[in-house]
Amino acid sequence: MDTASASPATLDTVMERIRPGVRNESPYLVGAPPRAEVKLNQNESPYDLPPALKAELIETLNDLAFNRYPAEQPSDLAEALAVHNDVSPEQVLVGNGSNELTYLFGLAFIAPDTPVVLPAPMFSLYEKVARLHDADLTTIPPRDDLHFDIDALVAAVTRTNAAMTVLTTPNNPTGLALPPSDLERVLQATPGIVVIDEAYVEFNEHPPATELLDAYPNLIILRTLSKAFGLAGLRLGYLMAHESVVTELMKARLPFMVDRFSEAVGRTVLQHPDLLNERVQQLKAHTRHLVDALSARSDVTTVPTQANFVLFAPQTKHADAVQDALAERGVLVRNMGGYDALQGYLRVCAGTETENKAFLDALDAVL
Protein backbone atom coordinates (compact mmCIF):
# COMPACT_ATOMS: atom_id res chain seq x y z
CA MET A 1 0.00 0.00 0.00
CA ASP A 2 1.40 3.37 -1.03
CA THR A 3 1.30 5.77 1.91
CA ALA A 4 3.85 8.24 0.59
CA SER A 5 1.18 10.80 -0.25
CA ALA A 6 -0.68 10.50 3.08
CA SER A 7 -0.67 13.64 5.21
CA PRO A 8 -0.32 13.57 8.99
CA ALA A 9 -3.45 14.38 10.98
CA THR A 10 -4.03 17.91 12.14
CA LEU A 11 -6.64 19.08 14.57
CA ASP A 12 -8.62 20.55 11.65
CA THR A 13 -8.68 17.24 9.76
CA VAL A 14 -9.66 15.39 12.94
CA MET A 15 -12.52 17.81 13.60
CA GLU A 16 -13.76 17.30 10.04
CA ARG A 17 -14.28 13.62 10.84
CA ILE A 18 -16.86 14.53 13.51
CA ARG A 19 -20.33 14.73 12.04
CA PRO A 20 -21.65 18.28 11.57
CA GLY A 21 -24.77 17.30 13.51
CA VAL A 22 -22.57 16.71 16.56
CA ARG A 23 -20.32 19.75 16.09
CA ASN A 24 -23.35 22.02 15.81
CA GLU A 25 -24.70 20.93 19.23
CA SER A 26 -23.80 22.16 22.70
CA PRO A 27 -23.20 19.88 25.70
CA TYR A 28 -26.04 19.55 28.18
CA LEU A 29 -24.75 21.53 31.14
CA VAL A 30 -26.88 22.89 33.97
CA GLY A 31 -24.20 25.17 35.37
CA ALA A 32 -24.35 26.46 38.92
CA PRO A 33 -22.28 28.50 41.35
CA PRO A 34 -20.03 26.37 43.59
CA ARG A 35 -21.91 27.43 46.74
CA ALA A 36 -25.64 26.89 47.03
CA GLU A 37 -27.44 26.44 50.33
CA VAL A 38 -30.82 26.10 48.62
CA LYS A 39 -30.75 24.13 45.35
CA LEU A 40 -34.11 24.44 43.60
CA ASN A 41 -33.01 24.42 39.95
CA GLN A 42 -33.16 20.77 38.82
CA ASN A 43 -36.60 19.51 39.89
CA GLU A 44 -34.99 17.08 42.33
CA SER A 45 -36.67 15.70 45.41
CA PRO A 46 -35.33 17.47 48.50
CA TYR A 47 -35.58 14.21 50.42
CA ASP A 48 -32.79 11.64 50.55
CA LEU A 49 -33.57 8.07 51.62
CA PRO A 50 -34.06 7.63 55.40
CA PRO A 51 -30.90 6.62 57.29
CA ALA A 52 -32.37 3.25 58.30
CA LEU A 53 -33.11 2.41 54.68
CA LYS A 54 -29.62 3.51 53.65
CA ALA A 55 -28.13 1.26 56.35
CA GLU A 56 -30.12 -1.65 54.92
CA LEU A 57 -28.78 -0.86 51.45
CA ILE A 58 -25.20 -0.69 52.71
CA GLU A 59 -25.60 -4.29 53.83
CA THR A 60 -26.85 -5.10 50.34
CA LEU A 61 -23.79 -3.40 48.89
CA ASN A 62 -21.52 -5.65 50.95
CA ASP A 63 -23.13 -8.71 49.38
CA LEU A 64 -22.69 -7.58 45.77
CA ALA A 65 -19.96 -9.07 43.59
CA PHE A 66 -18.17 -6.08 42.08
CA ASN A 67 -16.17 -8.32 39.74
CA ARG A 68 -19.25 -9.69 37.96
CA TYR A 69 -21.24 -7.97 35.23
CA PRO A 70 -24.85 -7.09 35.98
CA ALA A 71 -27.58 -8.67 33.87
CA GLU A 72 -28.18 -7.25 30.40
CA GLN A 73 -31.63 -6.30 31.69
CA PRO A 74 -32.28 -6.13 35.47
CA SER A 75 -35.17 -8.59 35.40
CA ASP A 76 -35.94 -8.43 39.14
CA LEU A 77 -36.30 -4.65 39.03
CA ALA A 78 -38.30 -4.86 35.79
CA GLU A 79 -40.68 -7.30 37.48
CA ALA A 80 -41.04 -5.00 40.52
CA LEU A 81 -41.79 -2.05 38.23
CA ALA A 82 -44.32 -4.16 36.33
CA VAL A 83 -46.14 -4.94 39.56
CA HIS A 84 -45.97 -1.26 40.56
CA ASN A 85 -47.65 -0.27 37.27
CA ASP A 86 -49.89 -3.33 36.75
CA VAL A 87 -48.28 -4.33 33.47
CA SER A 88 -46.42 -7.40 32.25
CA PRO A 89 -42.64 -7.62 32.99
CA GLU A 90 -42.11 -8.17 29.26
CA GLN A 91 -43.49 -4.66 28.71
CA VAL A 92 -40.79 -3.01 30.85
CA LEU A 93 -37.29 -1.91 29.86
CA VAL A 94 -35.06 -0.41 32.56
CA GLY A 95 -32.43 2.18 31.72
CA ASN A 96 -29.59 4.18 33.20
CA GLY A 97 -31.95 7.07 33.79
CA SER A 98 -34.71 8.00 31.35
CA ASN A 99 -32.20 10.16 29.43
CA GLU A 100 -30.33 7.05 28.32
CA LEU A 101 -33.58 5.61 26.99
CA THR A 102 -34.22 8.88 25.13
CA TYR A 103 -30.97 8.30 23.24
CA LEU A 104 -32.13 4.74 22.55
CA PHE A 105 -35.17 6.19 20.76
CA GLY A 106 -32.82 7.97 18.39
CA LEU A 107 -30.97 4.75 17.61
CA ALA A 108 -34.14 2.73 17.12
CA PHE A 109 -36.47 5.12 15.34
CA ILE A 110 -34.58 7.98 13.66
CA ALA A 111 -32.57 7.68 10.46
CA PRO A 112 -31.57 10.73 8.37
CA ASP A 113 -34.68 12.60 7.17
CA THR A 114 -37.05 10.58 9.37
CA PRO A 115 -40.06 12.79 10.17
CA VAL A 116 -40.27 13.64 13.87
CA VAL A 117 -42.85 15.96 15.48
CA LEU A 118 -42.18 17.67 18.81
CA PRO A 119 -44.29 20.24 20.65
CA ALA A 120 -42.67 23.23 22.31
CA PRO A 121 -41.58 24.18 24.85
CA MET A 122 -40.47 20.74 26.03
CA PHE A 123 -37.44 19.08 27.62
CA SER A 124 -34.67 20.04 25.21
CA LEU A 125 -33.02 16.62 25.05
CA TYR A 126 -35.68 15.30 22.67
CA GLU A 127 -34.95 17.96 20.08
CA LYS A 128 -31.22 17.41 20.52
CA VAL A 129 -31.55 13.66 19.89
CA ALA A 130 -33.64 14.35 16.77
CA ARG A 131 -31.02 16.76 15.42
CA LEU A 132 -28.13 14.41 16.24
CA HIS A 133 -29.77 11.75 14.07
CA ASP A 134 -30.51 14.23 11.25
CA ALA A 135 -34.28 13.89 11.58
CA ASP A 136 -36.72 15.91 9.49
CA LEU A 137 -37.94 17.80 12.55
CA THR A 138 -41.23 19.65 12.85
CA THR A 139 -41.65 21.75 16.01
CA ILE A 140 -45.12 22.92 17.04
CA PRO A 141 -45.27 26.18 19.06
CA PRO A 142 -47.53 26.31 22.12
CA ARG A 143 -50.82 28.11 22.53
CA ASP A 144 -50.79 31.53 24.19
CA ASP A 145 -51.42 29.88 27.59
CA LEU A 146 -48.30 27.67 27.04
CA HIS A 147 -50.37 24.48 26.70
CA PHE A 148 -49.43 22.19 23.82
CA ASP A 149 -51.41 22.94 20.66
CA ILE A 150 -53.03 19.54 20.17
CA ASP A 151 -54.91 20.57 17.01
CA ALA A 152 -51.65 21.63 15.37
CA LEU A 153 -49.88 18.49 16.62
CA VAL A 154 -52.53 16.20 15.16
CA ALA A 155 -52.33 18.06 11.86
CA ALA A 156 -48.53 17.83 11.82
CA VAL A 157 -48.25 14.10 12.57
CA THR A 158 -50.85 13.42 9.87
CA ARG A 159 -49.20 15.70 7.30
CA THR A 160 -45.65 14.46 7.89
CA ASN A 161 -46.49 10.80 8.60
CA ALA A 162 -44.31 11.22 11.68
CA ALA A 163 -42.25 8.19 12.69
CA MET A 164 -41.97 9.53 16.23
CA THR A 165 -43.85 12.10 18.28
CA VAL A 166 -43.14 13.01 21.91
CA LEU A 167 -45.54 14.37 24.51
CA THR A 168 -44.46 15.22 28.05
CA THR A 169 -47.18 15.30 30.70
CA PRO A 170 -46.88 17.01 33.09
CA ASN A 171 -44.59 19.00 30.87
CA ASN A 172 -41.13 20.12 31.83
CA PRO A 173 -40.56 23.10 31.83
CA THR A 174 -44.13 24.42 32.17
CA GLY A 175 -45.72 21.98 34.64
CA LEU A 176 -48.86 21.76 32.48
CA ALA A 177 -50.51 18.35 31.96
CA LEU A 178 -52.52 16.79 29.14
CA PRO A 179 -55.83 14.99 29.69
CA PRO A 180 -56.06 11.41 28.35
CA SER A 181 -58.39 12.57 25.57
CA ASP A 182 -55.61 14.76 24.11
CA LEU A 183 -53.12 11.90 24.31
CA GLU A 184 -55.54 9.64 22.47
CA ARG A 185 -56.10 12.21 19.73
CA VAL A 186 -52.39 12.10 18.89
CA LEU A 187 -52.16 8.32 19.23
CA GLN A 188 -55.09 7.88 16.85
CA ALA A 189 -53.67 10.32 14.31
CA THR A 190 -50.48 8.42 13.52
CA PRO A 191 -49.21 4.86 13.05
CA GLY A 192 -45.81 6.13 14.19
CA ILE A 193 -44.33 5.83 17.66
CA VAL A 194 -45.77 8.18 20.28
CA VAL A 195 -43.58 8.61 23.36
CA ILE A 196 -45.40 9.91 26.43
CA ASP A 197 -42.89 11.11 28.99
CA GLU A 198 -44.38 10.85 32.49
CA ALA A 199 -41.37 11.87 34.57
CA TYR A 200 -43.71 13.75 36.93
CA VAL A 201 -46.63 11.31 36.83
CA GLU A 202 -46.81 10.99 40.62
CA PHE A 203 -47.85 14.66 40.85
CA ASN A 204 -50.36 14.53 37.99
CA GLU A 205 -54.10 14.82 38.66
CA HIS A 206 -54.94 13.09 35.36
CA PRO A 207 -54.91 9.26 35.06
CA PRO A 208 -51.60 7.72 33.95
CA ALA A 209 -51.03 6.77 30.32
CA THR A 210 -50.71 3.09 31.28
CA GLU A 211 -54.48 2.92 30.84
CA LEU A 212 -53.86 3.37 27.09
CA LEU A 213 -51.17 0.71 26.60
CA ASP A 214 -53.47 -2.16 25.63
CA ALA A 215 -55.30 -0.11 23.00
CA TYR A 216 -52.30 1.50 21.28
CA PRO A 217 -49.32 -0.66 20.20
CA ASN A 218 -47.53 2.54 19.03
CA LEU A 219 -47.41 3.94 22.60
CA ILE A 220 -44.21 4.09 24.65
CA ILE A 221 -44.41 5.46 28.20
CA LEU A 222 -41.23 6.83 29.73
CA ARG A 223 -40.76 7.10 33.51
CA THR A 224 -37.98 7.98 35.95
CA LEU A 225 -37.08 7.27 39.56
CA SER A 226 -35.23 10.59 39.78
CA LYS A 227 -38.15 12.83 40.79
CA ALA A 228 -40.77 11.55 43.22
CA PHE A 229 -38.62 8.55 44.19
CA GLY A 230 -35.66 10.79 45.01
CA LEU A 231 -33.05 8.65 43.22
CA ALA A 232 -31.61 11.25 40.82
CA GLY A 233 -28.07 10.37 41.90
CA LEU A 234 -28.41 6.69 40.97
CA ARG A 235 -29.76 7.06 37.40
CA LEU A 236 -32.75 4.76 37.09
CA GLY A 237 -35.46 5.15 34.47
CA TYR A 238 -37.72 2.80 32.57
CA LEU A 239 -40.13 2.56 29.70
CA MET A 240 -43.30 0.58 29.16
CA ALA A 241 -44.51 -0.52 25.74
CA HIS A 242 -45.93 -3.48 23.85
CA GLU A 243 -43.69 -6.47 24.52
CA SER A 244 -42.81 -6.80 20.82
CA VAL A 245 -41.59 -3.19 20.79
CA VAL A 246 -39.52 -3.84 23.93
CA THR A 247 -37.96 -6.88 22.23
CA GLU A 248 -36.87 -4.75 19.26
CA LEU A 249 -35.55 -1.94 21.47
CA MET A 250 -33.34 -4.46 23.27
CA LYS A 251 -31.55 -5.07 19.96
CA ALA A 252 -30.40 -1.43 19.81
CA ARG A 253 -29.62 -1.24 23.50
CA LEU A 254 -26.15 -1.17 25.02
CA PRO A 255 -25.80 -4.08 27.48
CA PHE A 256 -25.11 -3.82 31.21
CA MET A 257 -26.51 -0.28 31.55
CA VAL A 258 -27.95 -0.73 35.06
CA ASP A 259 -25.45 -1.62 37.76
CA ARG A 260 -26.16 -4.11 40.53
CA PHE A 261 -26.37 -1.55 43.33
CA SER A 262 -28.79 0.76 41.51
CA GLU A 263 -31.02 -2.22 40.78
CA ALA A 264 -30.97 -3.20 44.46
CA VAL A 265 -31.87 0.33 45.54
CA GLY A 266 -34.72 0.51 43.04
CA ARG A 267 -36.17 -2.79 44.23
CA THR A 268 -35.88 -1.74 47.87
CA VAL A 269 -37.57 1.63 47.39
CA LEU A 270 -40.45 -0.03 45.53
CA GLN A 271 -40.98 -2.16 48.64
CA HIS A 272 -41.79 1.02 50.63
CA PRO A 273 -44.84 2.53 48.85
CA ASP A 274 -45.93 4.33 52.02
CA LEU A 275 -42.67 6.31 52.01
CA LEU A 276 -43.20 7.33 48.38
CA ASN A 277 -46.83 8.32 48.98
CA GLU A 278 -45.91 10.36 52.05
CA ARG A 279 -43.22 12.29 50.22
CA VAL A 280 -45.38 12.90 47.16
CA GLN A 281 -48.06 14.40 49.39
CA GLN A 282 -45.46 16.58 51.11
CA LEU A 283 -44.10 17.81 47.79
CA LYS A 284 -47.59 18.52 46.48
CA ALA A 285 -48.29 20.61 49.59
CA HIS A 286 -44.97 22.46 49.27
CA THR A 287 -45.65 23.13 45.58
CA ARG A 288 -49.11 24.50 46.37
CA HIS A 289 -47.53 26.79 48.95
CA LEU A 290 -45.07 28.10 46.36
CA VAL A 291 -47.85 28.65 43.82
CA ASP A 292 -50.01 30.48 46.37
CA ALA A 293 -47.13 32.68 47.54
CA LEU A 294 -46.03 33.56 44.00
CA SER A 295 -49.58 34.09 42.74
CA ALA A 296 -50.22 36.54 45.56
CA ARG A 297 -47.47 38.82 44.28
CA SER A 298 -48.37 41.61 41.87
CA ASP A 299 -44.79 41.65 40.51
CA VAL A 300 -44.78 38.00 39.36
CA THR A 301 -46.73 36.03 36.73
CA THR A 302 -47.19 32.34 37.60
CA VAL A 303 -48.09 29.35 35.41
CA PRO A 304 -50.37 26.63 36.90
CA THR A 305 -48.57 23.37 37.57
CA GLN A 306 -49.19 19.67 38.08
CA ALA A 307 -45.53 18.89 38.77
CA ASN A 308 -43.13 19.55 41.65
CA PHE A 309 -41.99 22.90 40.22
CA VAL A 310 -43.42 26.30 39.32
CA LEU A 311 -42.76 28.48 36.29
CA PHE A 312 -42.85 32.21 37.06
CA ALA A 313 -41.93 35.49 35.37
CA PRO A 314 -40.75 38.54 37.33
CA GLN A 315 -42.49 41.67 36.04
CA THR A 316 -40.34 44.44 37.52
CA LYS A 317 -36.84 43.07 36.93
CA HIS A 318 -35.14 41.06 34.19
CA ALA A 319 -35.19 37.31 34.83
CA ASP A 320 -31.39 37.06 34.42
CA ALA A 321 -30.86 39.70 37.10
CA VAL A 322 -33.31 37.99 39.45
CA GLN A 323 -31.63 34.62 38.97
CA ASP A 324 -28.19 36.10 39.65
CA ALA A 325 -29.39 37.99 42.71
CA LEU A 326 -31.02 34.85 44.14
CA ALA A 327 -27.81 32.89 43.53
CA GLU A 328 -25.85 35.54 45.44
CA ARG A 329 -28.16 34.77 48.36
CA GLY A 330 -27.47 31.03 48.05
CA VAL A 331 -30.71 30.13 46.23
CA LEU A 332 -30.55 28.42 42.83
CA VAL A 333 -33.43 28.57 40.34
CA ARG A 334 -33.45 27.71 36.63
CA ASN A 335 -33.55 30.31 33.86
CA MET A 336 -35.92 29.23 31.09
CA GLY A 337 -34.79 31.86 28.58
CA GLY A 338 -33.30 29.15 26.36
CA TYR A 339 -36.84 28.32 25.21
CA ASP A 340 -38.29 30.76 22.68
CA ALA A 341 -41.72 30.76 24.34
CA LEU A 342 -40.32 31.24 27.85
CA GLN A 343 -38.25 34.40 27.58
CA GLY A 344 -38.35 36.12 30.97
CA TYR A 345 -39.40 33.01 32.91
CA LEU A 346 -37.66 31.30 35.82
CA ARG A 347 -38.43 27.87 37.24
CA VAL A 348 -38.26 26.87 40.90
CA CYS A 349 -38.87 23.38 42.23
CA ALA A 350 -40.41 22.57 45.58
CA GLY A 351 -37.91 22.02 48.37
CA THR A 352 -38.37 21.44 52.05
CA GLU A 353 -40.42 23.91 54.04
CA THR A 354 -37.19 25.61 55.12
CA GLU A 355 -35.84 25.79 51.57
CA ASN A 356 -39.10 27.21 50.22
CA LYS A 357 -39.07 29.90 52.90
CA ALA A 358 -35.48 30.77 52.05
CA PHE A 359 -36.43 31.13 48.38
CA LEU A 360 -39.47 33.31 49.10
CA ASP A 361 -37.51 35.49 51.54
CA ALA A 362 -34.73 35.92 48.99
CA LEU A 363 -37.26 36.77 46.29
CA ASP A 364 -38.75 39.41 48.59
CA ALA A 365 -35.33 40.95 49.00
CA VAL A 366 -34.58 40.83 45.27
CA LEU A 367 -37.91 42.21 44.05
UniProtKB/TrEMBL annotation:
Its EC number is 2.6.1.9. The keyword Transmembrane helix does not apply. Residues 38-363 form the Aminotransferase class I/classII large domain. Keywords: Amino-acid biosynthesis, Aminotransferase, Histidine biosynthesis, Pyridoxal phosphate, Transferase. GO terms for biological process: L-histidine biosynthetic process. It comes from the Bacteria. The modification N6-(pyridoxal phosphate)lysine is found at K227. It holds the Pfam family Aminotran_1_2. Its cofactor is pyridoxal 5'-phosphate. GO terms for molecular function: histidinol-phosphate transaminase activity; pyridoxal phosphate binding. This is Histidinol-phosphate aminotransferase. It comes from Longimonas halophila. The gene is hisC.
